[in-house]
Amino acid sequence: MSDKDSTLAQFDQAGAQRLEKIYLTPDVVQQREQIFQLLQVKPGMQALDIGCGPGLTSLALAQAVGDKGRVDAIDIAPPMLQLAARRCEHAKQVAFHQADVLHLPFADGAFDVALATQVYEYVADLDAAFTELARVMQSGAQVLLVDTDWESCVWACRDETRMRRVMQGWSQHIPHPQLPRSLVQRLQRAGFAKVEVNTIPLINLAFSTDTFSGGMMGFIASFVGGLPEYGTQLVADWQADVSSMEEAGGYFFSLNRYVFTAYKP
Ligand SMILES: C[S@@+](CC[C@H](N)C(=O)[O-])C[C@H]1O[C@@H](n2cnc3c(N)ncnc32)[C@H](O)[C@@H]1O
Contact, 257 vs 31, CB < 8 A? Predict the structure, then answer.
């Protein structure tokens, strides 16, 4: 299966709804607020939301640019665009487009600011994608990219060997599961300057489905359980182990989101 087909399979109708639920949990809401503090978006700006998913970032961008600004939001997955369009139906300054980050349907220098949260790790040809991003940004424009290094995931369990096996399977859900460690150089190669990195940790100290890790557990189980060499019993045992860690001394989950800001010279 190509990376694009794998992305479309992960974000079918059920996958899109599951992700929307996770991204509405209080810890991800707080993460979005922290990300927006690093984004230099102002009223009247032309903003680009790359891989907009369920449109939570598109709506926040619409509020930031106001009535005199404009937000163009793209995504490759139609179920995501449907959720996003519904969320933003009253925000007339937002337009949605089904598009691949490799072929942005916009003129050179069209945008003042661009945001891509958890998107580029899904894209195999990153050099082409960042060259395309640089093309549509105007001189002086800021881009903000958020990506995860799944090696930064610390998740308490009883069976460490099984945990490592499951996380190895999960790393197959994207072509770049450790993208942050090479992102500074990749952005510089595409011509971006003043690249800076911040981290936002997501920490859960109790198991609940209304948290990032509680929601992600189902996402991971669904993907890894479908891999030929894994199977549903192994992931069910993994879920039972991790979700009951309170009885074995304590639930603990931590994961770093890496936030990169850069400018087109
Ligand atoms: C994990 S979701 C993040 C959604 C959104 N950025 C957010 O943070 O709420 C990743 C999104 O990137 C989209 N995506 C992945 N590869 C893409 C590509 N090549 N072009 C456009 N969108 C892509 C997916 O369809 C999905 O909606």
Answer: yes
What digits encode the pLDDT tens for the residues 59-76?
A: 999 999 999 999 999 999
The confidence band for 215, taking pLDDT boundaries of 50, 70 and 90, is very high
Ligand 1 mutation target, pool 7, 35, 88, most atoms within 8 A of CB: 7
Query: Do 47 and 71 meet the contact criterion of CB atoms below 8 Å apart?
Result: yes
CB atoms within 10 A of CB 246: 12
Picking from 253, 254, 119, the residue whose alpha carbon sits closest to that of residue 174 is 119
The pick from 39, 76, 123, 148 for probing ligand 1's pocket by mutation, whose C-beta has the most ligand atoms within 8 angstroms, reads: 76
- Tell whether ligand 1 has an atom less than 6 A from the beta carbon of residue 77: yes
Indicate whether this model's pTM tops 0.90. Answer: yes
Name 168's Cβ contacts closer than 8 Å, sequence gap at least 6.
Answer: none
Please report the pLDDT score of residue 213 as a whole number.
97
Number of domains in the chain: 1
- Any atom of ligand 1 within 6 Å of the Cβ of 51: yes
Residues 140 and 114 sit within 8 Å (Cβ to Cβ) = no
* Ligand 1 binding pocket includes 79 (Cβ within 6 Å): no
CATH number of the domain that 152 lies in? 3.40.50.150
Range of the domain at 105: 3-263
Q: What percent of the chain has pLDDT over 70?
A: 100
